[in-house]
Amino acid sequence: MSVYGPIVKIHPVVLASIVDSYERRNEGACRVIGTLLGTIDKHTVEVTNCFSVPHNESEDEVAVDMEFAKNMYELHKKVSPSEVIVGWYATGYDITEHSVLIHEYYSREAQNPVHLTVDTALQSGRMNIRAYVSAQMGVPGKTVGVMFTPLTTKYVYYDTERIGVDLLHRTRNIPSRTNGLTTDLEQVGSAASRIQEMLTTVLSYTEDVLDLLMVTYLSNLTQAQIALNEKLVCL
Question: Within 10 A of 218 (CB to CB), how many other CB atoms are there?
Fold first, then answer.
């Protein structure tokens, strides 16, 4: 639950890329990290893309290939100049001590960077996705610590991404976990069916409103008739 801060909107391509980098991780690696790209406005951070960054970590230290991260971002700007660094991600369920060190680097690359954690190992039985923003805490002039505060996350997609999301959703109940792309005609038919369902809902709502207005009209008419009869009796 968000305490304060922007709403983080995540596109499905970001989650797919994170899962893919986790599945392709080096042997012996416990988690993968990477840079989050997207756009920022006053109230939201929209994460539209990402790329993984090589790193090594042990119990005592962590090493991140910052040069690789910079080069990848420079190349990405040539393709999508509107997307900027909005934060970084890490697979796993918890925030570690190394996360604080990595977050310090991204704090120099972006203002108030978002830290996204994705539980690709399904430690809780599902792929929990959480977003955080850091805040300094401590006494001024003394040792300062960092506290990660949770943010509200939402899942959004473009119309073109909707096709892939629907396809993945259909494979959930298929034992082989495979499914082919639909033809253009089938997509038109599916879209027409959804429109028909929405129109049915709108018509049903309209009829319910008309019935309510009729009841209200008859009730007001009855009250007016009773009031008129009382006045006639008094005469």
Answer: 10
Which residue(s) pair with 84 in the sheet?
A: 38
> For residue 29, how many C-alpha atoms fall within 13 Å in the half-sphere facing its CB?
19
At 213, the amino acid letter reads: L
Find, among 51, 109, 54, the residue nearest to 75 by Cα: 51
Q: Kindly report, residue by residue over 17-45, the tens digit of the pLDDT.
A: 999 999 988 887 888 999 999 999 888 99
Question: Does the predicted TM-score (pTM) go above 0.85?
Answer: no
Q: d(Cα 10, Cα 129) in Å, to the nearest integer? A: 10
**Which H/E stretch holds residue 128?**
none
Are 9 and 44 spatial neighbours (Cβ–Cβ below 8 Å)? yes
Nearest to 116 by CA among 25, 230, 19: 19
Residues 156 and 15 sit within 8 Å (Cβ to Cβ): no
Read off the tokens for 154.
Answer: 């939402």
Two structure tokens written together for 69: 């991260």
Q: Which tokens in the block code for residue 172?
A: 């959930």
Tell me the per-residue pLDDT of 98-146, one tens digit each, with 9 for 90 and over. Answer: 888 899 889 888 888 999 999 988 877 778 899 999 877 766 666 567 7
* Closest to 2 in 3D by CA, of 130, 135, 155: 130
When the pLDDT of each residue in the chain is averaged and rounded to a whole number, the result is 84
